[in-house]
User: Fold this.
Amino acid sequence: MRLNQVTVPCVDYAASVDFYKQLGLVQIVDSPPRYARFECPSGDGGEPATFSLHHVEGWAGCDHPAVYFEVDDLDADYARLTEAGVTFLSAPQDQRWAWKEAWLRDPAGNRICLYQSGEMRRFPPWRIEPRETG
Assistant:
């Protein structure tokens, strides 16, 4: 099983599409004002995950769930995006779990984390071994 698709609500289709393009996602479906789908740039050479927007009325945003996008150079992306006018809730910060994170909200109020983790995402020292199911 692979997680391949996440859909988040949007209230302003054009603003949300522009926001996610600015982050670096590649739009592959454009069905305004209701739906847009993007491919995430594939850093590992595998099939890219997809991410989509679906228009809803009356959405005010919320804290959970949060969407995490892993980037190769968080400091460079943070600098590029702030220069382009994107407002972050927090600058890149080293976390005790050995990730660096910067938080922001998309135009609909969804919480987004840009982070850099390298091998620590899948192979932290506290990783447990998967149990066989039978």
Summary: The chain has one domain: 5-121. The radius of gyration is 16 Å. The longest strand covers residues 62-70. The mean pLDDT is 91.
